[in-house]
Write a structure and sequence with these properties.
With about 270 residues, the protein is an alpha/beta fold. The protein has eleven helices and eleven strands.
Length: about 270
């Protein structure tokens, strides 16, 4: 296999710190791809900021930020769902069509836009979005009608026990469009998007999926989730291999976003060959 060719150093890669990214980077952490890149872990919004500032060369980035920054994608892998995603939750003290103020998890970018679209398209409301907050549900709901919580903090919530209205935004998108929802993909400036690095990302994921038992065991030690929760989440909620239908869902999402952010044009809105 051709190894990546570097311009003086290995690529600096911003990777999401949530559980949903672990299979994607398992080979880069523990497998044959561990010498192909330098990984640094952050929440999704911070990964996007690291690419924008030049602190990283490549990242697993929120789809909306890939579009805003006009980056190229590495096709074939990412973070998507074909139904309930479980880790993108909108929790509300009031009926959804009465939400006026929404508190958003500081780690989110794509999910904030997804919440705007679903509330507008399905419930006819366009609430005020409060400044990004620490994902602690009680504090978020003190000053807002509803809260958007993503990633591991959302996975730690049992929404049906809260006594509030709640939505799984992945499930809502699939019901609304009949298409998958893509949340994040590997991306970077065009001169960093090479066939060799694309293969490294694909191989890293395949190494992770082949060693899923190892992932479940290790992540149950380091995160506050049982092995059963981790296995169900990674095998039933999150989709890592992306195909034509996933990219159709992504393009549909970005077309709707472009109605809110006019002029949003970038390579990820074009046809993607996998």
């Amino acid at each position: 296999m051709q190894k990546p060719i570097y311009r003086g150093h290995k690529p600096k890669v911003a990777a999401v710190s949530y559980l949903n990214t672990v299979p994607l980077v398992w080979g880069a952490l523990h497998g044959p791809q561990r010498d192909d890149m330098q990984l640094e872990f952050r929440v999704p919004s911070e990964c996007a900021d690291m690419l924008r500032s030049g602190l990283s060369n490549i990242g697993i980035l929120p789809v909306i930020e890939i579009a805003r920054q006009g980056l190229e994608i590495f096709p074939g892998t990412g973070i998507a769902c074909h139904g309930p995603v479980r880790s993108i939750l909108l929790i509300s003290k009031v009926p959804f069509n009465q939400i006026r103020r929404l508190s958003c998890d500081r780690g989110s970018r794509t999910s904030v836009m997804l919440a705007r679209l679903i509330l507008r398209e399905r419930f006819g409301v366009e609430p005020e979005f409060l400044p990004p907050a620490t994902p602690l549900l009680g504090g978020m709901l003190l000053s807002a009608d509803a809260a958007l919580v993503i990633g591991d903090p959302a996975l730690a919530i049992q929404p049906e026990t809260l006594g509030y209205e709640w939505l799984d935004l992945g499930e809502q998108w699939v019901q609304m469009t009949g298409l998958p929802m893509v949340f994040a993909m590997w991306a970077g400036p065009a001169d960093w998007v090479t066939p060799a690095l694309e293969q490294s990302f694909r191989d890293s994921l395949e190494f992770g999926l082949t060693n899923l038992d190892w992932i479940v065991e290790q992540e149950a030690i380091s995160r506050p989730f049982s092995e059963a929760v981790i296995r169900d989440y990674l095998t039933k909620n999150i989709v890592f291999r992306l195909g034509a239908k996933d990219y159709e869902g992504m393009r549909t999402f970005l077309r709707l976003v472009s109605e809110i952010e006019p002029g949003l044009k970038c390579p990820v809105m074009e046809n993607v060959l996998v």
